Amino acid sequence: MGKITAKIFKCKGKGCNGVVNPNNAKPVSLRTGCQFCDDVYPCDTCGKLHNFNGKPIEHRFDGAEVFWINGEIIHKKDGKEVKYDF
Known about the structure:
Elements: E1 9-10, E2 19-20, E3 28-31, E4 37-42, E5 49-50, E6 65-69, E7 72-77, E8 80-82
Antiparallel strand pairs: 1-2, 3-4, 4-5, 6-7, 7-8
């Protein structure tokens, strides 16, 4: 079976004109449960993470936006960084 080619799409980040290209971007492995991870892809401009189909990633508890910045997963709510203490 060959490589699956994904659609290139515009970032859904507020005020961002960047693009997300799952074909060229190195995927970020995001933990989505106790035992599971999904590959997500950063915008080439703001770092906002999106899934393979272009849907923006949000924190499951409060809807905070999720970004890949300087090699770290960062959560932002209303434009401010949020830290979680679990």
